[in-house]
Amino acid sequence: MIKLKGPAKSRAASATEVARLAGVSRSAVSRTFTDGASVSAKTREKVLAAAAELNYHVNHLARSISKEKSRPVCLLAANLDKPYHNLLLDALTRQLQADGRMVMIINVTSDPQSADEALKKALSYRASASIVMSGTPPEAMVQACVESGQKVILINRNNDIENVHHVQIDYHQAMHDAVDRFLEAGCTKLCLVSSTKGTPSLLARERFFIEAAKEKRADVSVWRSHDTNYEDGQRAARELLSKPERHQAYFCITDLVACGFLDTARHEFGVSIPDDISVLGFDDIPQSGWQGYNLSTFAQPYDGIAQRVTAILNDQVDQDLTSRLAVIPKMRSTIRQCM
């Protein structure tokens, strides 16, 4: 029987091997790769030549693990297939890397046990901070991270956990703005297309939208699906638009839901938007601006969240542990003038 040989396993060259090949001391190699350190031009030339021959690279993580800014920042995230999470992850990683930080992404589910395990990994990697984008970790685990010297930042999570930083969207103002947009268009019969997922951000949007509608004396009803995907918007449209009497305006809890709602309303029910009904979304994902949707929505301040997180990591914030950021209305062509 013929045994096939795979490629030979390689290992990273060490500084000691570079020193031996260059004919210099181990400390001379270290000084060569340390900014500002004293080393002669001849020694530097020999060390660099040996390093190139051995394909040697400095292990910056091992060298500077004691420096807070050089330790990794862990991002705990889930549902990375969804546009909102992609956009937030992109903004955070760009901002953190520009700040000279190494980022480690841990994919978690939304349940507390998964977030708990992820925070344990962050502790074992001696992360300088953990940024929770998804899931609600147990308070005891969060406190363990804080006591170990980590900063913990929760993005749009429950803020009943103390001694951590919270970065949240001002959903109160955003939902009042959403109701105002419908009322300005003459729409008083509103429907909130929501979800039973029960995440903190979704619950806040739902609560403040209903509160604003009642406060402004608009008629509001709520329809909920299991999730916040395109298919959930389709399901909502099929059920709601089949009723004899339709609402004048529909606020979809996310843009993905709104896209599914719009496509089904147009192609299966022949509904003209915005002539027959008005539709509003939330998140301002790239698809919402496509010509086929041109969806009126609210833009999440992705870059603003990332900048605030970086400011927290650099101790450039005041004593208030909760930051609230405003969304940006993007009114396009899916809100009509109701009669």
From TrEMBL:
Pfam families: LacI, Peripla_BP_3. InterPro entries: HTH_LacI, LacI/GalR-like_sensor, Lambda_DNA-bd_dom_sf, Peripla_BP_I. Keywords: DNA-binding, Repressor, Transcription, Transcription regulation. It comes from the Bacteria. Gene3D superfamilies: 3.40.50.2300, lambda repressor-like DNA-binding domains. Residues 13-67 form the HTH lacI-type domain. The keyword Manganese does not apply. PANTHER family: LACI-RELATED TRANSCRIPTIONAL REPRESSOR, RIBOSE OPERON REPRESSOR. This is Substrate-binding domain-containing protein. It comes from Marinomonas ostreistagni.
